[in-house]
Amino acid sequence: MLLARQRMPAEYTYARYLSSKRSVDDRALNKDVVRQLEIAVKERAQLNVLELGAGLGTMLARLVDWGVIRHASYTLLDVEARLLDDARDWLAEWATSKGFEVKVDAGDLRIRREQEVDLEVSFSCAELGHYLEGNPSMQPVDLLIANAFLDLVDVPTLLPHMLRLLAPGGLYWFTINYDGETIFQPAHEHDQQFMRVYNRSMDERLRFGRAAGSSRTGRLLFGALAKSGASVSAAGASDWIAYGQGGRYEADEAYFLHHIIYTIDEELKRHAEIAAGALADWVALRHKQIECGELLYIAHQVDLFGRREPSVQTTT
């Protein structure tokens, strides 16, 4: 379940949320789909990669750690300038901790280790719709990535333009696409009502004056990709599952869960059909369960990997 970016109190920051869900994403990403991506990119000596809604840069780090990407020009696109600044710092720290040579040039990063890894990392601040409208002559990319992002945009409208960013036969990897099912355990009498309203809010969301998202993005992407001239080579479930063991969660996943509950609370407060007292009690209980390592959280999501058909016209 992707969370809308919004103003939040100091104890909740979007950068920490992105960092805290790294281990959750690591488990969730469909390994069969990842394997097909790995096979496809090995055919290419050098990759030109664009990641949409790139956030903190954890996907780039993951792909290097997993040995999927080694030589690439990699652009992180995000609407939040501050988040891209955080990403630059985070990636430099990660690369240094891995023993890579890191150079900073005019805000870009060069991450290298002998002949093993050579990455040119750049950062682009723009809202996706404006980026698509304002870059008609950009060089087509070999790989387009969107992780936990497409359920924040109007896929039917924007997807054809997104795919035109790809070179003929170029690859896309769209991951962690929410598909309408959220489960909490222990179950609560208000779970179904609250999540029904929350999912509806995703379907009705507007951002930057545009429709922005769907609670069924995972399943809808199959048809949208076919209509946009792209094939699906591999697909599979990528459910988020966070659970405690011995009263504790892995890594920073307790924060991840607190942030999930906080964001649901902030959204549901806006809906008159939700009784304020019932919501407050539910939120307090869920936070307490997290503190005790008792809350199980599952969100159903879908990963897709494939190619842009050569017949689709590029933006050049």
CATH class: Alpha Beta
In total, the number of strands is 12
**Parts with pLDDT < 50 across at least 5 consecutive residues:** 4-8
Estimate the helix proportion, in percent.
25-40%
Bulk shape: globular
Mean pLDDT: 93
Domain unit count = 1
Q: How much is the radius of gyration in Å?
A: 20 Å
First-residue to last-residue Cα separation: 35 Å
Strand percentage lies at 25-35%
What CATH architecture label applies? 3-Layer(aba) Sandwich
CATH topology: Rossmann fold
- Outline the biggest β-sheet: 10 strands, mixed
Per DSSP, the total helix count is 11
- Class by alpha and beta content: alpha/beta
Seen as an oligomer or otherwise, the chain set is single chain
CATH homologous superfamily label: Vaccinia Virus protein VP39
The helix/strand series, from N terminus to C terminus, equals: HHHEHEHEEEHEHEHEEHEEHHE
Q: What is the secondary structure topology, with strand pairs?
A:
Layout: H1 14-20, H2 22-28, H3 31-41, E1 47-52, H4 58-65, E2 71-78, H5 81-97, E3 101-105, E4 108-113, E5 117-125, H6 128-134, E6 141-147, H7 155-163, E7 166-185, H8 191-204, E8 206-207, E9 210-211, H9 217-227, E10 230-237, E11 240-242, H10 253-268, H11 276-291, E12 296-308
Parallel strand pairs: 1-2, 1-6, 2-5, 6-7
Antiparallel strand pairs: 3-4, 4-5, 7-12, 8-9, 10-12, 11-12
Helix pairs in contact: 1-10, 7-9, 10-11
